[in-house]
Amino acid sequence: MDPQRKRKIRLGVALGVAVLLAAALVYTSFTASAESKEPSQLVGAAPGTSYDMNAEVVKGSIRHHGEGLSFRVTDREGRGPTLPVTYRGTIPDPFRGGREIVLTGQVEHGVFVGEPDTLVTKCPSKFTTSNAS
Amino acid sequence: MPAELGSVVLALAFLTMVLAAGAALLGRKGDERWLTGSRRAVYGACALLTLCVVLIEIAFASNDFSYKIVQEHSSIETPSFYKLAAMWSSQEGSLLLWSWVLSIASSLALWATRDKLREIVPYATAVMAGVASFFTGLMLFAGGVNPFATLSPAPPDGIGLNPLLQHPSMMIHPPMLYSGYVALTIPFAFAIGALVTRRLDAAWIRATRRFALIAWAFLGLGLMLGARWSYTELGWGGYWAWDPVENAALMPWLVCTAFLHSVMVQEKRGMLKVWNACLIVATFSLALLGTFLVRSGVLQSIHAFGENTVGPYILGLIAVVVLGSTALIVSRLDDLRSEKRIDSLFSREAVFVVNNLLLVALTATIFWGTFFPLISELFTGTKSSLAAPWFDRYTTPLAILLVLFTGIGPLLAWRRVSWATARRAFVVPAASAAVVALALGIFTDAASKPWALALFAFAAFSLVGLGQEFWRGAAARRSLTGEAMPAALVGIVSRNRRRYGGYVVHAGVAVLLIGIAASSSFQTKRDVDLRPGQSATIDGRTVTYERVTATVTPLAFTAGAAVRVSDGGSSFILHPTRRFYRPTGGAPSTETISNYFAGESDSDIGLKAGAGSDFWTALQPDITGVQRHARAADAGFRACVTGRPGTPPQCRAVAGMMRAALGNPSLRPTALAQIERLQMATAKQIAQGYVAEGAPATFRVIVNPLVTWIWIGGLIALAGALIALWPARRARRVPAADTELEALKEAKYREIRDAELDHAAGKLSDEDYALLDAELRKEAVEILDRV
């Protein structure tokens, strides 16, 4: 086989593999992802679908019981209706009232049930006195 | 006054950078006066920006709260070390740091090339000064990000620095990452210069390779420090979360790794020129993208710095860089043609191509995952995000292949290797990999995680292969010089720093990946609820909650535990604590004991690190009782301050003072100070009550195998980078006009020496060596003819 032809075949195979892998990547990313929603969009959501909830924790609503945790959330900057949340698992250090969180879970009977160990609290870049009241 | 002075100095630095860029472009035809002028202007701007940094640091050190930046990020109680480092916890301080480090890097690059690369330097200067003007200009004109903004009247105290950030590695981590991002500007600028002037041989690469390596080392160190902070400080126990901001720092590092390899192919063989140009543009754009992601808040990240003022400008710069560079590369395609072709798939350059494809595939995967929320919003209208398992699924196989290639690459010589020679080089490493795989499969449960087992086997291949390389190199030198083995080893490394430094980096990466694979696959993680005195058994060890501790200071309430961990014979005690900080900056009269639990809290984990496994524990105390007591005590003190009934007995006297203060306000401070003292005493009683009560606590316990290998691997890789960076003995200075040919000649001599070494070390067969040596000598003669 002449070298020119060999190179072309090699290039074709490599490109084919790359396209296949890329297709797998794209396909799985659409099936594996969870939709991001804010609490106001989740009130009354049907059970059985997993969501990534971006929310703000209502100050003073956090209750620990045993390994579990319950609190209420609103949309960012305290807008919109409040949604009760239950969660078990790791609690990041910066978690507290007034802070923004991301939590994966489902809505069951009007309560957002978080999956264990999926609570992410946004890292604050600084203190603000307004949160401290 | 100094603040206004600072603004003026900053404006001067901006103007000087603009002048530097202009002068460099005017000097593009080689006019010495313009060129010298532009270089000196860059030095001058560097001095001015240094002055700006000094002014800001003085303001921090002297608690000058008339500076907005100081008031928002420091306070009187902030420890001195963190005062000096608080500059870059702000957006404006970060921008100043970016500009300052860039001006230093540009000055160094221009000094190093002051009598080289005549045609390329003017354009490179224009690019570097242009980027620096952009960032200094941003501070002056974008609004809200001038580090010299003032507050009038100056408040008495500042807000303070978040206690979570008060950790040594958190203070070094951002400047490391920024220095890495910034140093990437230098190779990018020279690449643009080379493209514009069509001087597309390897000269620009030789001049800036060192900067790319420095950037790579800084980025790597920044990533490691961030991981270490996350592991020890966040009470979470992980070191990587595929968070957008982490990914933003990892992507330029990966592409930079690819670039550092593929430029060698261009240096030695004159190939991959388009690829290298694309890689450096991609690296620089990804570095800018990292800066943008950190500062813009377009993606949900745990690093929510979220002030959206400079984001659009940086996005604009990225667009200019990507579009401009692409147009430039396309218009120069004819000049970027390869001088040679790959001789054989059994050659180092072929392996480099594979490694580049793997690294770029890895970056593309991470890029897609990171920006998926935006992509899905575009196609489906809803923002959806991808979690760690998706990233793991794709990055794991790619990382396993990469570790294999860190072993294969060093075993092969440039150009071509005969099958017999290759077999000789591969026998021992491959056998070791098989032995390791078998042993782990039989004696441990590693076979339950095939990916991890594959990684361990390939890492063994790579480590043994690298060891063999050192051994063969040293043996070859010993047979030439008759030195003892250790001396021969030192000699071979110090004479071939780039090569052996690179091998050390490879070994570090292999060790690091072993640590990641082991700790992510074979980790035991449990949350247990224990009361004092109770025990639980975790991974064969007995964990006993022995003692409760609690301390109170005006700044924080700390609940702690003494935990005994014993595995039959030996035992050790860990002291995880959780600290609840009172928000700073409140007036004393409104401070309550409950306020301790309204502020930040952080964990001091209990960690017993070991070469085999880490025992990691964090404490989540049940403080509902403490909070209840605090609320009751606060109600009493409120009654005290307002003089209403319900005053607790111990503060009746103070209540009297407060009533008297209503008539005579000068008594008020004394009364308030008295209340504060009583509050502290009560808080201490509550803490003692917490100890006596024996409240339950949740312990998160992680037994993490081989985590220490991650940090050690990182240190080994850093040491390798330092070996590769260490300057060789200074060559004789040659007249300016000849430097480029002279450098070319040096490079060719080095290649001949490399081939000699490869032959002596048995990596090249006699026939292959004879062929290669003849080729190289012919190429060397061609160069000598031109000299």
Q: How would you describe the overall organization of this protein?
A:
- The complex is a heterodimer of chains A (133) and B (787).
- Chain A is built from two helices and eight strands.
- Chain A has helices at residues 3-32, 39-42, and strands at 34-37, 51-57, 63-65, 68-74, 83-88, 100-108, 111-114, 120-121.
- Chain A has a five-stranded mixed beta barrel.
- In chain A, a hairpin with a 2-residue loop joins strand 3 (63-65) and strand 4 (68-74).
- Chain A starts with a helix and ends in a 12-residue tail after the last strand.
- The model of chain A is unreliable at 125-133 (pLDDT under 50).
- Chain B is globular, with a radius of gyration of 31 Å.
- Chain B has 24 helices and eleven strands.
- Strand 1 of chain A pairs antiparallel with strand 1 (384-385) of chain B, so a sheet runs across the interface.
* Percent helix range of chain B: 55-70%
What is the SS-derived class of chain A?
Answer: alpha+beta
| Arithmetic mean pLDDT of chain A | 79
Residue-averaged pLDDT of chain B: 86
**Gap from first CA to last CA of chain B:** 60 Å
Question: Structural class, from helix and strand content of chain B?
Answer: alpha+beta
Number of helices of chain A: 2
How much of the residues of chain A is beta strand, in percent?
Answer: 25-35%
- Rg calculated over all Cα atoms of chain B: 31 Å
> Which pair of protein chains has the largest interface, and what are the residue counts?
A-B, 43 and 61 residues
Number of DSSP helical runs of chain B: 24
The multimeric state of the shown protein is heterodimer
> Overall 3D geometry of chain B?
globular
